[in-house]
C-alpha cells in the first residue's frame, strides 16, 4: 500500500467552515454508506445527534459500532465502493491499516480532541481526511464530499463538427420534452403528485420524508432557485433524473423545471444589462471528473461541441473550481478537469445567472448557474501541470452554434406531434420515447377531463396506438375500429384523421396476419391523403410504405419494392437525412431483399437504416432493436454466425425492456434458431420455450409467428430424441398454420414434412 503525506490543510480541518462549498443535501444514494466506530462512553449531546441524523439524507444507512472487530467484519461484507468511515483516536495502527486497504472504503475521518498527539500517524494514510475535534466539522466535510461526488458525476455529450447530428439522442428529445413541460398548466395538484411520487421511492428515509413534506407545504414561499440551492433533496433528485434521462422523474418535476428555468431567465435578463455595462466578456470555472473515454474523444476532435446534461453549476472563483477538480485526480477511470468557460454577453445562446442574493446561501457562493443542456464549443485543452496527465484544463465558449441538421430534425419532430393541448403533446412524445405506461396514464386523464365525443375519440386513438406498440394487436384493432366509426360520423369523409385511423387499422391487421384487410385499409388511408396532401409529402410516403408492407406479406415482392422506392424518394426529398422514417424505408427494402434471397443487398440497406436509427433514436428504442434483428438475420443467411449473434444480443438487450412484448418472443426465437443451426439444440430449446411462454401468457397463440416458434421448438426436441414433445409442438404448428396458409403453401408443406419425419422416428423409437 502506498502511503502519501497529507497536507496541513487536511490535518487541521477543524479550522474550516461550512461556507466555502455548497453542502446541499442528497436524494439518498444506496451505495453511499457511513460507518462510525465509536466508544461506548462517547455519548453525543442532542445537537451532535441531530447532526448525525441529518446525514441520513446523504447516506442510505448510518452504521454505528462499538466493537472494532464487528466493524471490520461489516466492512469486509460490503460490496459498495463509496464507504466513509469515522474512527476514534484509540484505533490502533493495525486496524487503521486494515480498514484503509479495503477498496470499498473511500475516506476516513478521525474524531479526536487531541490533534497534535495523533498528527504523525494519520499523515501516513492518504484516505484519512483529517483529525476533527467536533462531530459538526465531520458532518460539514461529509456534506461537502457528497456534493463534490454529485458535481463530479455530471455527464457530457461531445460532438465533433463532422457528426453534429449525434446530439439528437440525448439533446433533441430532452429539448422537446422541456418545451412540452413548459407549456403545461401546473397547479397545487402537480406539487402534491410530485411529493407523493417522492414518498414512494424505495430509498427515501424518514429524514428525507420530512424534507418532502416541507417542500410540499412551503413551495410557494420561496423561488425555485432557493429550493434548488437549499439543503434539500431537490438538487440531487433533479440532476440525477436529467443525467440518467429518468423520464418518470422529469415528468413529475415538470413544474419545478419550468419554474427554475423561468427564474434563471428572469434573473439573467436583470443581470445581463449590468454585466454588459461593466464588460462584454466573462469567465466562469467548473471542476469535475471526466471519463478517460470522454477525454480521448476530446483529444481526437477539433472545435467540438460539448453539452452538459444537467443544470450546470459554475463559479467565478477559479480556486474553488480547482479544488473540486483536483479531488478527482486519483480515480483510475477518470481524470480531473478544470473547465474555463468564456461567455460573450452580447451573443450568449442560453440563460445563465449569478445566484448571489437569490440562493439559499445568499451571497456566499459566487455560483453562476446555466440552464440545462447548454451547448459550448471547445477551444483548447492542456495539462494543468506539464508532468501530470491526470489533471487537465479545457477552455469552453458559450456558443450560438445551432447545427442545421439537429435543428431541422427537431423541427420535423415538433411538426409531427399534432396535439390538441400540451398534455396531448407530452403523451405523443412519451410514445416516441417508448414510455407507453406514462403516455397511457396521460390519455386516460385527458379522457376523464373532456366532455367532447370527438376529443375522447382522438385520445382513444392514441391509447390504441399504445396498445399496438405494446403488442396487444387485438385490443388495438378493436379500439381503432371504434374510433374510426366516431370520426366517420363526426368528420368529413376526407378528413386526415380518418386516414390516420385507416392506417393504424391496416397496421394492426398486418400484425394479426389479416393481410388482405390490411391492404384494403392502407389503400383507403392513401386515397384520403392523396386528396389532402401535395404529391411530395411525408405522410403520402408513409401510406405507400404501408401498402408495400401489405404486398410483401402477401409475397408480391416486385409490387412491394415499387412502393418502397417511391416512399424512399419522397422521404429523401422532404425530410432531414437522419429522420427515422428514412431508416424505416431502408429497413423494409432490406426485408424484401431478404425474402428474395438478395442477402448482400439486404445487409447494405439494413446498415443504412442502422446508421440513421443510431443517430436519431434513443439507444434503447424498440425500432432500433428490430433493426438489429434484421441485420442479425441477414448475417445468419450469409452464414456469418458470430456477427449474427452479436446483433441478436443487441436486439435482445433492448427488447427485454418490454418483458411481455411479442417482439421479445421473436428475439428469443431468432436466437434459438441460430443455436439450432449450430447444433446446440438444448440451448435452442431454452430460447424457444421463453418465446412460447410469452405468447401463451399474454397473447393468443393463434397466429403464424407462434406457429413458427412451435415448429422450431418441435424440430429442436426431435434432435435431442424427445419425439413425443416434438410431435405435440409440430402438430400444434400445423393446426395454426392451416388457419392462415393455403393447403399448398410451401411453409405448411415443410411443417407437414417435419411432422411426418418425427412420427417415423417416434414409431421406430417405440418399436425398439
UniProtKB/TrEMBL annotation:
Q: What class of enzyme is it?
A: transferase
Q: What is its EC number?
A: 2.4.2.31
For this UniProt record, the keywords arranged alphabetically read as follows:
Glycosyltransferase, NAD, NADP, Nucleotidyltransferase, Repeat, TPR repeat, Transferase
Q: Where are the TPR repeats?
A: 541-574, 583-616, 665-698, 707-740
Which GO molecular function entries does the Swiss-Prot or TrEMBL record give? Answer: NAD+-protein-arginine ADP-ribosyltransferase activity; nucleotidyltransferase activity
Task: Give the catalytic activity.
Answer: L-arginyl-[protein] + NAD(+) = N(omega)-(ADP-D-ribosyl)-L-arginyl-[protein] + nicotinamide + H(+)
Lineage top rank: taxon: Eukaryota
Q: Which InterPro entries match?
A: ART, TPR-like_helical_dom_sf, TPR_rpt
Write down the PROSITE patterns for this protein, in alphabetical order: TPR, TR_MART
In the UniProt record, does the keyword Glycosyltransferase occur? yes
Nucleotidyltransferase as UniProt keyword: yes
Pfam families associated with the record: ART, TPR_12
User: Which family would the database say this protein is a member of?
Assistant: Belongs to the Arg-specific ADP-ribosyltransferase family.
- Name this polypeptide is given: NAD(P)(+)--arginine ADP-ribosyltransferase
Q: Which organism is it from?
A: Adineta steineri
Amino acid at each position: 500500500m502506498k502511503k502519501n503525506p497529507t497536507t496541513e490543510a487536511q490535518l487541521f480541518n477543524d479550522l474550516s467552515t461550512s461556507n466555502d462549498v455548497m453542502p446541499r443535501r442528497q436524494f439518498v444514494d444506496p451505495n453511499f454508506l457511513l460507518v462510525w466506530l465509536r466508544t461506548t462512553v462517547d455519548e453525543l449531546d442532542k445537537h451532535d445527534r441531530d447532526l448525525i441524523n441529518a446525514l441520513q439524507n446523504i447516506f442510505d444507512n448510518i452504521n454505528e459500532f462499538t466493537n472494532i472487530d464487528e466493524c471490520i467484519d461489516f466492512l469486509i461484507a460490503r460490496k459498495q465502493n463509496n464507504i466513509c468511515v469515522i474512527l476514534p483516536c484509540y484505533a490502533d495502527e493495525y486496524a487503521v491499516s486494515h480498514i484503509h486497504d479495503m477498496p470499498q472504503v473511500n475516506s476516513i475521518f478521525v474524531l479526536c480532541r487531541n490533534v497534535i498527539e495523533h498528527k504523525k500517524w494519520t499523515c501516513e494514510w492518504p484516505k484519512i481526511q483529517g483529525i476533527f475535534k467536533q462531530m459538526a466539522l465531520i458532518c460539514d466535510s461529509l456534506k461537502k464530499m457528497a456534493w463534490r461526488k454529485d458535481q463530479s458525476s455530471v455527464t457530457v455529450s461531445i460532438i465533433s463538427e463532422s457528426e453534429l447530428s449525434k446530439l439528437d439522442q440525448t439533446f433533441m428529445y430532452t429539448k422537446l420534452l422541456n418545451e412540452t413541460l413548459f407549456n403545461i398548466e401546473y397547479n397545487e395538484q402537480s406539487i402534491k403528485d410530485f411529493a407523493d411520487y417522492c414518498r414512494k421511492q424505495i430509498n427515501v428515509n424518514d429524514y428525507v420524508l420530512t424534507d418532502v413534506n416541507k417542500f410540499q407545504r412551503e413551495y410557494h414561499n420561496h423561488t425555485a432557485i432557493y429550493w434548488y440551492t437549499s439543503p434539500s433533496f431537490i438538487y440531487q433528485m433533479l440532476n440525477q433524473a436529467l443525467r440518467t434521462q429518468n423520464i418518470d422523474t422529469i415528468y413529475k418535476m415538470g413544474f419545478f423545471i419550468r419554474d427554475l428555468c423561468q427564474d434563471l431567465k428572469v434573473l439573467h435578463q436583470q443581470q445581463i444589462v449590468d454585466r454588459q455595462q461593466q464588460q462584454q466578456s466573462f469567465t466562469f470555472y467548473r471542476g469535475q471528473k471526466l471519463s478517460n473515454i470522454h477525454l480521448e474523444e476530446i483529444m481526437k476532435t477539433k472545435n467540438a461541441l460539448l453539452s452538459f446534461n444537467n443544470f450546470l453549476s459554475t463559479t467565478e472563483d477559479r480556486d474553488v473550481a480547482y479544488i473540486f477538480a483536483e479531488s478527482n485526480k486519483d480515480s483510475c477511470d477518470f481524470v480531473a478537469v478544470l473547465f474555463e468557460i468564456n461567455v460573450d454577453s452580447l451573443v450568449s445562446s442560453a440563460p445563465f445567472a449569478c445566484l448571489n442574493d437569490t440562493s439559499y446561501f445568499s451571497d456566499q457562493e459566487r455560483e453562476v448557474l446555466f440552464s440545462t443542456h447548454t451547448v459550448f464549443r471547445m477551444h483548447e485543452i492542456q495539462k494543468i501541470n506539464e508532468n501530470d496527465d491526470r489533471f487537465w484544463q479545457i477552455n469552453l465558449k458559450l456558443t450560438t452554434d445551432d447545427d442545421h441538421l439537429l435543428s431541422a430534425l427537431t423541427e420535423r419532430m415538433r411538426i409531427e406531434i399534432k396535439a390538441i393541448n400540451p398534455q396531448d403533446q407530452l403523451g405523443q412524445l412519451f410514445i416516441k420515447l417508448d414510455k407507453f405506461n406514462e403516455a397511457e396514464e396521460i390519455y386516460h386523464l385527458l379522457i376523464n377531463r373532456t366532455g367532447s365525443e370527438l376529443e375522447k375519440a382522438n385520445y382513444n386513438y392514441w391509447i390504441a396506438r399504445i396498445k399496438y406498440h405494446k403488442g396487444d394487436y387485438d385490443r388495438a384493432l378493436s379500439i381503432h375500429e371504434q374510433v374510426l366509426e366516431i370520426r366517420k360520423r363526426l368528420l368529413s369523409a376526407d378528413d386526415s384523421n380518418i386516414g390516420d385511423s385507416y392506417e393504424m387499422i391496416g397496421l394492426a391487421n398486418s400484425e394479426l396476419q389479416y393481410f388482405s384487410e390490411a391492404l384494403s385499409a392502407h389503400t383507403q388511408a392513401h386515397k384520403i391523403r392523396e386528396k389532402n396532401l401535395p404529391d411530395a409529402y411525408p405522410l403520402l410516403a408513409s401510406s405507400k410504405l404501408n401498402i408495400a408492407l401489405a404486398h410483401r406479406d402477401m409475397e408480391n415482392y416486385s409490387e412491394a419494392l415499387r412502393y418502397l422506392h417511391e416512399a424512399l424518394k419522397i422521404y429523401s426529398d422532404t425530410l432531414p437525412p437522419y429522420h427515422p422514417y428514412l431508416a424505416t424505408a431502408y429497413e423494409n427494402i432490406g426485408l424484401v431483399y431478404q425474402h428474395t434471397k438478395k442477402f448482400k443487398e439486404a445487409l447494405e440497406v439494413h446498415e443504412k437504416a442502422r446508421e440513421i436509427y443510431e443517430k436519431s433514436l434513443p439507444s434503447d428504442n424498440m425500432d432500433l432493436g428490430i433493426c438489429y434483428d434484421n441485420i442479425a438475420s441477414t448475417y445468419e443467411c450469409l452464414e456469418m454466425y458470430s456477427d449474427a449473434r452479436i446483433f441478436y444480443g443487441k436486439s435482445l438487450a433492448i427488447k427485454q425492456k418490454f418483458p411481455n412484448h411479442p417482439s421479445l418472443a421473436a428475439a428469443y426465437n431468432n436466437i434459438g434458431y441460430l443455436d439450432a443451426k449450430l447444433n446446440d439444440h438444448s440451448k435452442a430449446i431454452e430460447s424457444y420455450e421463453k418465446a412460447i411462454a410469452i405468447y401463451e401468457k399474454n397473447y393468443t397463440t393463434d397466429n403464424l409467428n407462434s406457429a413458427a416458434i412451435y415448429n422450431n421448438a418441435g424440430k429442436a426436441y426431435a434432435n435431442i430424441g424427445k419425439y413425443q414433445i416434438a410431435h405435440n409442438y409440430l402438430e400444434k404448428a400445423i393446426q395454426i398454420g392451416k388457419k392462415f396458409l393455403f393447403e399448398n403453401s410451401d411453409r405448411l408443406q415443410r411443417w407437414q414434412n417435419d411432422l411426418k419425419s418425427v412420427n417415423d422416428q417416434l414409431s421406430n423409437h417405440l418399436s425398439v
